[in-house]
Amino acid sequence: MNMLPLLSTVLTSVVALVVSMATFTQDTSNGDDRSPKTGASSHPLSRAADAAISRGVDKDYIELLLRDSMTSFDEKYVRTNVTNFATKPDYSHNWSAEAVSNVREFLDRHKTLLQRADSVHGVPPSIIGALLWVETKHGRVTGKHHVPSVYLSVLLSNESEFIESNTALVMKAKSIDSSKIDSVREALVKRADRKVNWAVQQLKALHSIQMRKTMNTLTLRGSWAGAFGLTQFLPSSYVSSAADGNDDGTIDLYQIDDAVFSVANYLDRAGWGKTPEQQRKAIHHYNNSDDYVNAVMKLAGLASE
C-alpha cells in the first residue's frame, strides 16, 4: 500500500492546525485581551490596570472595570488631559444675552433653594447660577465620555510613545522653535507624571463612590477630563464636597438640589469670603483658569443687574 498520499494529507492538516493556533495566539495577545500583562506589546488597558494596581487602586475594582464592555483605552484622553494648556479657551459665549437671560430665569425658578444654600454656605445665588451655566448650561450638557476610561487612559500618559506625540503636538500648537524640543519634552514628562498621579487619585475616589453604593461608577459618563453631573465634579471632589441638598439620604449631582448645595459647599470649603480676592481664589480652586474665573464673575454680575 502506498502511504505517501496519506502522509501528505496528515502533514497538511498538521501545518494548517499550527498556523491556525499561531494566528489565534497573535490575535488574542494584540487584540482585546484585558488580562494583566507586562511589556509594551500588551494591550493598553492591561498596562493601565497594572499601573493602577501598583499605585494602590483596589485590584478588585480595576478587574471589575476591565470586565465591563464600556471600559476602553482612548489616546485622545492622553492627548487632551496633558496638552490642553497649549490652547487658550474661549469663554466669551458665556456672557451672551441668551446666557444672561437663562441665568436670570434659573435664579428666579430656584430662588428658595438658592437662598437656602446661601444661608448655609454664604455663596450668593448669582455665583451658583453662573457657575452651573458655565459648567453644563444648567444640566443641558453634562458629557458623554466614559469616566473610568478617561482615567485609565491617562495612566499611560508618561509612556514614551505618548510623550513624543504630545511633545510634537505642543510644539506645533504653540509654534515653538525646534531647538527647544528637549525643554518642551522635559516639561511634558513632568506634567504627564502629575496627570498619572491625578488619575490614580480619581480612580481611588471612584472606587470609594462605588463602595458607598450612591451611584454606579461603571456606567458613569462626563467630560473628557472625567468630570460629571450638573456641577462637573471630579470623583475626588464628589468624595470631599458633594452635599445632600434635599435631605433624602443620597447625593445625586444630576439632581438640582444636590448640585446647588454641592457647588455652595465646594466654594465654601475653598475659602469663599466677602472680598473679591477670596471669591476669585475659591472659584479658581474650582477651575485653575483665570479666564474661567472671569467668566463666572462676569456672568454673575450681569445676571444680577
CATH A-level architecture of one domain: Orthogonal Bundle
Quote the distance from N terminus to C terminus. Answer: 105 Å
Indicate the proportion of strand residues: under 5%
Overall radius of gyration:
25 Å
The overall pLDDT, averaged over residues, is 89
CATH topology of one domain: Lysozyme
- How many beta-strand elements? 2
Considering the chains and any ligands shown, give keywords for the structure.
about 300 residues; mainly alpha; Lysozyme; two-stranded antiparallel ribbon; 2 strands; disordered N terminus
What is this entry, summarized?
With about 300 residues, the chain is mainly alpha-helical. About 65% of the residues lie in helices and about 0% in strands.
Description:
It contains 14 helices and two strands, in the order αααααααβαααβαααα. The protein is 63% helix and 1% strand. It has a two-stranded antiparallel sheet. The radius of gyration is 25 Å and the shape is globular. Helix 10 packs across helix 11. The protein has a domain of 137 residues: Orthogonal Bundle (Lysozyme), CATH 1.10.530. It is an all-alpha fold and 305 residues long.
List the helices and strands and how they pair.
Elements: H1 4-30, H2 44-54, H3 59-67, H4 75-83, H5 97-109, H6 111-121, H7 125-136, E1 145-146, H8 147-154, H9 160-173, H10 181-212, E2 221-222, H11 235-241, H12 256-269, H13 276-286, H14 290-304
Helix pairs in contact: 2-3, 4-8, 4-9, 5-7, 5-14, 6-12, 7-14, 8-10, 9-10, 10-11, 11-12, 12-13
